[in-house]
Amino acid sequence: MGANVIRGIDRRRFLATGAAAVIGAGVATRATALAPADVPPGGALRSKAPLPRPYQVPLPIPPAPRPLQTAGGTDTFQIVQREAKLEILPGLRTTCWTYNGTFPGPTIISRSGRRTVVRHRNELSQPTVVHLHGGHTPQDSDGYPIDLTMPVNSRLSVEDAMAGMDDMGETHGNIAYGERTYTYPMQQRASTMWYHDHRMGYTGSAVWHGMAGFHLLTDDEDEALALPRGERDIPLMIVDRAFEADGSLMYPGDPNMHSPGVSRNHTAGVQGDVILVNGAPWPVHRVQRGRYRLRLLNGSNVRYFKLALDPPPPGGKGLVQIGSDGGLLERPLRHDTLRLAPGERFDIVVDFSRYRPGTKVRVLNRFGSRTTADVMRFDVSPSTRAVHDDARVPDRLALRAESVLDPAKAVATRTFEFRHSGRAGWTINGEAYRPGRSLTRAKLGTTEIWRFKSVFFHSIHVHLDPFRVVSRNGKAPGPFDHGWKDTIAMGPGETVDVAVRFTDYTGHFMLHCHNLEHEDMAMMADFSTY
Ligand code: C2O
Ligand code: CU
Ligand code: CU
Hints:
By secondary structure, this protein is mainly beta. The protein has three domains: 69-220, Cupredoxins -  blue copper proteins (Immunoglobulin-like, Sandwich), CATH 2.60.40.420; 230-251 and 260-380, Immunoglobulin-like (Sandwich), CATH 2.60.40.420; 401-529, Immunoglobulin-like (Sandwich), CATH 2.60.40. Helices cover 10% and strands 38% of the residues. It has five helices and 33 strands. The chain has helices at residues 2-33, 158-161, 203-208, 220-224, 516-520, and strands at residues 69-71, 74-86, 94-99, 105-111, 115-122, 130-133, 149-150, 176-177, 179-184, 191-197, 212-218, 233-241, 274-277, 280-281, 284-287, 291-298, 305-310, 319-324, 327-335, 337-340, 345-351, 360-365, 374-380, 412-421, 425-428, 438-442, 447-454, 458-462, 467-472, 487-490, 495-501, 507-513, 524-529. The strands form seven sheets. The chain has a seven-stranded mixed β-sheet, with no helix packed on it. Helix 2 links the parallel strand 7 (149-150) and strand 8. The structure holds CU-O-CU linkage (C2O) and copper (II) ion (2 copies). One copper (II) ion binds next to strand 6. One copper (II) ion (CU) binds next to strand 6.
């Protein structure tokens, strides 16, 4: 026990010096020169491995296994968490922590209204926690950060696994040994969700090493629309990483996971110099001259992207947004660029028939520089023959209008300030995360206004139910704030009001920064529902 206390103190001191310096620099120099919520400052790790030229590696599509069993309204999947050596950079092997041996993990496809059960078996050497991001999930399956699943073959004690955490008191999680069954009722509308590790103190490291995958939810409303489907419906997980000379992943945290946190230069968040899409560096994908649905996810620990098509199609506005975190928009929105903060999803349709046959369309990152300015490329088929494409983007997408949350009916306004506090590190309302302590309580079925205030770059995520953005800095929502959101980008000095209503499940849920290093260094809070 004594050792834990000392580690806890170290962790605070570590943060107080490291992060405060970074914050000072970030806010004073870069942030003032940029539009709010543009791009967080911070240097990236430099890979030591030789990097391939962009647009050589084909885009992988993660496998989408059929359920093991489908019975009585339940679809059951099995995932084994294990190390795997993957060829990410051509010719090198990278040891990843995977779901079923791939990165991204398998894409799970569920149908709204049918329960999905995922059995996870932990064959890794450290404890894990799985969270379904975007899921409307009861607490016991939501990936509460101390509900550890201990490795199948290890003697690691729960106490050792929690070493270095501050303020745990007598709190302990619901511990499983070897395997855990997560149950998702899927009483929610179609959306692009993702699952990833959520262990207290180590989420950044676990996700960086490969623990992330897509979970897609379909429903009648989505399927009734003539949106692109099959091989023209592609999930794209965009992340940055950095690699050591031998191909292993570079991460500035404790490799033995005995103490959380990252080295001093990276307390603002860990960024790499290689962009991976579905696990491949700057990949290329051959497309027909037709419409494609691209489900974009920024799965990075901290990097923001501002995506643009190069060249843009004649007439511009090539990125037609049909959905956001929480599913279809009411109406499509046409963009030239899309900004994605960590954890956010944008469901878009790109019509490649607007391009001449044979055009090579790059997806660029306008927030990047050098290697991080390239993302991937779509090579439009050179064939001049017309392709069959009966996909459409109707003017009206979601049938249920947005009357759903009326901010005028809000019963309370709660303010959450995301800031760095010298003593406690990255905090919400001055508090470092402590499991079991709720910052607020919300009554199921009532609407509240949650006011997020930020003095730095934070990507703010709320579990359990999505929200609607009511205002940004006292004005109308920004161009990327539309629809049902569960994650929202914030820049220095910003205030965002959202309307939220929790339903169905009582218990403790989380609200946190999705900059995974901020999250690990305690920028997380519980809220409880009753
Ligand atoms: Cu995507 Cu609480 O996380
Ligand atoms: Cu979540
Ligand atoms: Cu943050």
